[in-house]
Protein backbone atom coordinates (compact mmCIF):
# COMPACT_ATOMS: atom_id res chain seq x y z
CA UNK A 1 0.00 0.00 0.00
CA UNK A 2 1.36 3.42 -0.97
CA UNK A 3 2.15 5.85 1.77
CA UNK A 4 0.17 9.10 2.08
CA UNK A 5 3.35 10.99 1.03
CA UNK A 6 3.77 9.00 -2.21
CA UNK A 7 0.10 9.45 -3.07
CA UNK A 8 0.46 13.18 -2.59
CA UNK A 9 3.49 13.29 -4.92
CA UNK A 10 1.70 11.24 -7.58
CA UNK A 11 -1.32 13.52 -7.40
CA UNK A 12 0.93 16.57 -7.75
CA UNK A 13 2.62 15.13 -10.84
CA UNK A 14 -0.73 14.35 -12.45
CA UNK A 15 -1.77 17.94 -11.93
CA UNK A 16 1.42 19.56 -13.19
CA UNK A 17 1.90 17.54 -16.40
CA UNK A 18 -1.43 18.53 -18.00
CA UNK A 19 -0.75 22.13 -17.04
CA UNK A 20 2.63 22.10 -18.81
CA UNK A 21 1.14 20.39 -21.86
CA UNK A 22 -1.57 23.01 -22.08
CA UNK A 23 0.97 25.82 -21.97
CA UNK A 24 3.16 24.26 -24.67
CA UNK A 25 0.25 23.56 -27.02
CA UNK A 26 -0.56 27.25 -27.54
CA UNK A 27 2.87 28.06 -29.00
CA UNK A 28 2.18 27.62 -32.71
CA UNK A 29 3.29 29.06 -36.00
CA UNK A 30 0.76 31.31 -37.76
CA UNK A 31 -1.82 29.19 -39.51
CA UNK A 32 -0.47 25.91 -38.11
CA UNK A 33 -3.79 25.27 -36.40
CA UNK A 34 -5.45 25.20 -39.81
CA UNK A 35 -7.01 28.60 -39.29
CA UNK A 36 -7.28 30.42 -42.61
CA UNK A 37 -7.94 33.62 -40.72
CA UNK A 38 -4.66 33.38 -38.79
CA UNK A 39 -2.67 32.62 -41.95
CA UNK A 40 -4.30 35.50 -43.83
CA UNK A 41 -3.55 37.92 -41.01
CA UNK A 42 0.07 36.79 -40.85
CA UNK A 43 0.52 37.06 -44.62
CA UNK A 44 -0.89 40.57 -44.73
CA UNK A 45 1.55 41.52 -41.98
CA UNK A 46 4.42 39.83 -43.84
CA UNK A 47 3.53 41.75 -47.00
CA UNK A 48 3.61 45.04 -45.08
CA UNK A 49 7.00 44.14 -43.61
CA UNK A 50 8.34 43.28 -47.06
CA UNK A 51 7.03 46.47 -48.68
CA UNK A 52 8.47 48.69 -45.95
CA UNK A 53 11.87 46.93 -46.15
CA UNK A 54 11.56 45.67 -42.59
CA UNK A 55 11.74 42.03 -43.73
CA UNK A 56 15.29 42.59 -44.97
CA UNK A 57 16.65 40.33 -47.69
CA UNK A 58 14.35 37.48 -48.68
CA UNK A 59 14.41 34.99 -51.55
CA UNK A 60 10.86 33.65 -51.94
CA UNK A 61 7.51 34.45 -50.38
CA UNK A 62 6.43 32.21 -47.46
CA UNK A 63 4.72 29.09 -48.80
CA UNK A 64 1.66 29.73 -46.65
CA UNK A 65 1.25 33.14 -48.31
CA UNK A 66 0.95 32.07 -51.96
CA UNK A 67 -2.84 32.32 -51.97
CA UNK A 68 -2.78 35.60 -50.07
CA UNK A 69 -0.31 37.19 -52.49
CA UNK A 70 -2.27 35.84 -55.48
CA UNK A 71 -5.50 37.30 -54.10
CA UNK A 72 -3.81 40.66 -53.57
CA UNK A 73 -2.26 40.80 -57.04
CA UNK A 74 -5.41 39.68 -58.83
CA UNK A 75 -7.82 41.75 -56.75
CA UNK A 76 -8.61 45.44 -56.64
CA UNK A 77 -6.25 46.36 -53.79
CA UNK A 78 -3.05 46.08 -55.83
CA UNK A 79 -4.24 48.52 -58.45
CA UNK A 80 -5.67 50.82 -55.81
CA UNK A 81 -2.38 50.89 -53.89
CA UNK A 82 -0.45 51.75 -57.04
CA UNK A 83 -3.05 54.38 -57.98
CA UNK A 84 -2.72 56.18 -54.64
CA UNK A 85 1.08 56.26 -54.98
CA UNK A 86 0.74 57.66 -58.51
CA UNK A 87 -1.54 60.38 -57.16
CA UNK A 88 1.05 61.39 -54.56
CA UNK A 89 3.79 61.36 -57.21
CA UNK A 90 1.76 63.63 -59.50
CA UNK A 91 1.02 65.99 -56.63
CA UNK A 92 4.74 66.28 -55.89
CA UNK A 93 5.61 66.67 -59.57
CA UNK A 94 3.23 69.63 -59.83
CA UNK A 95 5.22 71.39 -57.10
CA UNK A 96 8.49 71.21 -59.06
CA UNK A 97 9.59 74.28 -60.98
CA UNK A 98 10.46 73.03 -64.46
CA UNK A 99 13.31 75.03 -65.94
CA UNK A 100 12.60 74.21 -69.57
CA UNK A 101 16.19 73.21 -70.33
CA UNK A 102 15.39 69.50 -70.54
CA UNK A 103 17.41 68.69 -67.43
CA UNK A 104 14.54 68.12 -64.99
CA UNK A 105 14.46 64.33 -64.76
CA UNK A 106 12.09 61.68 -63.50
CA UNK A 107 13.46 58.12 -63.40
CA UNK A 108 11.40 54.97 -63.82
CA UNK A 109 12.32 51.36 -63.30
CA UNK A 110 10.65 49.02 -65.82
CA UNK A 111 9.70 45.57 -64.50
CA UNK A 112 6.83 45.73 -61.98
CA UNK A 113 6.99 49.52 -62.30
CA UNK A 114 6.08 50.42 -65.88
CA UNK A 115 5.41 46.88 -67.10
CA UNK A 116 3.69 44.12 -65.17
CA UNK A 117 5.00 40.57 -65.49
CA UNK A 118 2.07 39.13 -63.56
CA UNK A 119 1.33 36.56 -66.27
CA UNK A 120 4.86 35.19 -65.92
CA UNK A 121 4.68 35.02 -62.14
CA UNK A 122 1.25 33.39 -62.18
CA UNK A 123 2.94 30.44 -63.86
CA UNK A 124 5.76 30.46 -61.31
CA UNK A 125 4.01 30.49 -57.97
CA UNK A 126 3.68 34.25 -57.53
CA UNK A 127 7.23 34.46 -56.21
CA UNK A 128 7.21 31.22 -54.20
CA UNK A 129 9.66 29.62 -56.64
CA UNK A 130 13.36 30.62 -56.80
CA UNK A 131 14.02 33.08 -59.62
CA UNK A 132 15.10 31.45 -62.89
CA UNK A 133 16.84 34.03 -65.09
CA UNK A 134 16.72 31.84 -68.21
CA UNK A 135 12.98 31.33 -67.90
CA UNK A 136 12.36 35.03 -67.23
CA UNK A 137 14.52 36.09 -70.17
CA UNK A 138 12.45 33.87 -72.43
CA UNK A 139 9.40 35.78 -71.20
CA UNK A 140 11.09 39.16 -71.79
CA UNK A 141 11.85 38.29 -75.42
CA UNK A 142 8.12 37.86 -76.07
CA UNK A 143 7.62 41.63 -75.43
CA UNK A 144 4.05 41.14 -74.23
CA UNK A 145 4.10 42.59 -70.71
CA UNK A 146 1.28 45.15 -70.35
CA UNK A 147 1.49 48.53 -68.65
CA UNK A 148 0.07 49.29 -65.24
CA UNK A 149 -2.83 51.69 -65.62
CA UNK A 150 -1.47 53.85 -62.80
CA UNK A 151 2.09 53.94 -64.11
CA UNK A 152 0.97 54.91 -67.61
CA UNK A 153 -1.20 57.66 -66.11
CA UNK A 154 1.77 58.92 -64.08
CA UNK A 155 4.11 58.72 -67.06
CA UNK A 156 1.77 60.75 -69.28
CA UNK A 157 1.18 63.34 -66.55
CA UNK A 158 4.92 63.83 -66.06
CA UNK A 159 5.47 64.30 -69.77
CA UNK A 160 2.74 66.96 -69.87
CA UNK A 161 4.37 68.75 -66.94
CA UNK A 162 7.65 68.94 -68.87
CA UNK A 163 9.76 66.30 -67.15
CA UNK A 164 12.49 64.48 -69.02
CA UNK A 165 12.00 60.74 -68.60
CA UNK A 166 14.89 58.35 -67.99
CA UNK A 167 14.30 54.60 -67.80
CA UNK A 168 16.76 52.73 -65.61
CA UNK A 169 16.41 48.96 -65.60
CA UNK A 170 18.29 45.90 -64.46
CA UNK A 171 17.70 44.27 -67.83
CA UNK A 172 20.79 43.60 -69.95
CA UNK A 173 21.89 45.65 -72.93
CA UNK A 174 21.18 42.79 -75.34
CA UNK A 175 17.48 43.13 -74.40
CA UNK A 176 17.26 46.75 -75.56
CA UNK A 177 15.31 46.10 -78.76
CA UNK A 178 12.68 43.81 -77.20
CA UNK A 179 12.34 46.17 -74.23
CA UNK A 180 11.78 49.20 -76.45
CA UNK A 181 9.20 47.28 -78.48
CA UNK A 182 7.36 46.17 -75.35
CA UNK A 183 7.34 49.68 -73.88
CA UNK A 184 5.98 51.26 -77.05
CA UNK A 185 3.34 48.57 -77.50
CA UNK A 186 2.26 49.19 -73.89
CA UNK A 187 1.78 52.90 -74.53
CA UNK A 188 5.07 54.50 -73.43
CA UNK A 189 7.01 56.84 -75.68
CA UNK A 190 9.42 59.78 -75.88
CA UNK A 191 11.80 58.80 -73.09
CA UNK A 192 15.17 60.57 -73.12
CA UNK A 193 17.34 57.58 -72.20
CA UNK A 194 16.94 53.86 -71.65
CA UNK A 195 19.75 52.65 -69.41
CA UNK A 196 20.44 48.91 -69.28
CA UNK A 197 23.22 46.82 -67.75
CA UNK A 198 26.31 46.66 -69.92
CA UNK A 199 29.17 44.14 -69.63
CA UNK A 200 30.88 46.39 -67.08
CA UNK A 201 27.77 46.30 -64.84
CA UNK A 202 27.50 42.54 -64.52
CA UNK A 203 27.90 41.31 -60.96
CA UNK A 204 27.07 44.65 -59.37
CA UNK A 205 24.23 44.84 -56.88
CA UNK A 206 21.16 46.64 -58.16
CA UNK A 207 21.67 49.36 -55.55
CA UNK A 208 25.24 50.08 -56.68
CA UNK A 209 24.51 49.79 -60.40
CA UNK A 210 21.53 52.15 -60.28
CA UNK A 211 23.29 54.60 -57.97
CA UNK A 212 26.20 54.79 -60.40
CA UNK A 213 23.86 55.44 -63.33
CA UNK A 214 22.07 58.21 -61.42
CA UNK A 215 25.43 59.73 -60.51
CA UNK A 216 26.39 59.86 -64.19
CA UNK A 217 23.16 61.69 -64.96
CA UNK A 218 23.90 64.29 -62.28
CA UNK A 219 27.45 64.77 -63.61
CA UNK A 220 25.88 65.32 -67.06
CA UNK A 221 23.86 68.18 -65.58
CA UNK A 222 20.50 66.47 -65.02
CA UNK A 223 18.46 67.25 -61.91
CA UNK A 224 16.74 64.12 -60.58
CA UNK A 225 13.50 65.28 -59.00
CA UNK A 226 11.60 61.99 -58.88
CA UNK A 227 12.23 58.26 -59.01
CA UNK A 228 9.68 55.46 -59.16
CA UNK A 229 10.46 51.78 -58.63
CA UNK A 230 9.13 48.58 -57.13
CA UNK A 231 12.39 47.72 -55.33
CA UNK A 232 14.16 49.63 -52.61
CA UNK A 233 17.34 49.05 -54.64
CA UNK A 234 15.74 51.20 -57.37
CA UNK A 235 15.58 54.11 -54.96
CA UNK A 236 18.29 53.87 -52.29
CA UNK A 237 22.08 54.22 -52.41
CA UNK A 238 23.71 57.48 -53.51
CA UNK A 239 22.76 60.18 -56.03
CA UNK A 240 19.14 59.72 -54.98
CA UNK A 241 16.14 61.69 -56.24
CA UNK A 242 14.55 64.57 -54.37
CA UNK A 243 11.52 62.30 -53.87
CA UNK A 244 11.31 58.56 -54.38
CA UNK A 245 8.09 56.60 -54.76
CA UNK A 246 8.05 52.88 -53.94
CA UNK A 247 5.28 50.99 -55.72
CA UNK A 248 4.07 47.61 -54.39
CA UNK A 249 5.65 44.30 -55.32
CA UNK A 250 5.27 41.38 -52.89
CA UNK A 251 6.63 38.79 -55.34
CA UNK A 252 10.39 39.27 -55.18
CA UNK A 253 13.24 41.21 -53.58
CA UNK A 254 16.34 42.51 -55.41
CA UNK A 255 19.19 43.83 -53.23
From TrEMBL:
Signal sequence residues: 1-22
GO molecular function, one term: nutrient reservoir activity
Pfam family name, one: Acid_phosphat_B
Annotated keywords: Glycoprotein, Signal, Storage protein
Alphabetized InterPro entries for the sequence: Acid_phosphat_B-like (IPR005519), Acid_phosphatase_pln (IPR010028), APS1/VSP (IPR014403), HAD-like_sf (IPR036412), HAD_sf (IPR023214)
Coiled-coil segments on the chain, per record: none
NCBIfam families per UniProt: plant-AP
Protein purpose: May function as somatic storage protein during early seedling development.
Family: Belongs to the APS1/VSP family.
Protein name: Acid phosphatase
UniProt source species: Arabis nemorensis
Amino acid sequence: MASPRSLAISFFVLLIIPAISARISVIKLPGSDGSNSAAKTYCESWRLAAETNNAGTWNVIPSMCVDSVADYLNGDQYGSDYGVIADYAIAFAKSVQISGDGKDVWIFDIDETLLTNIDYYKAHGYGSEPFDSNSFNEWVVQSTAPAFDASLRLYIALKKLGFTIVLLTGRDEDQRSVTETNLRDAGYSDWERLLLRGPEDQGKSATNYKSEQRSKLIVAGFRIHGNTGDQWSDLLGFAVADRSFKVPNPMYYIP
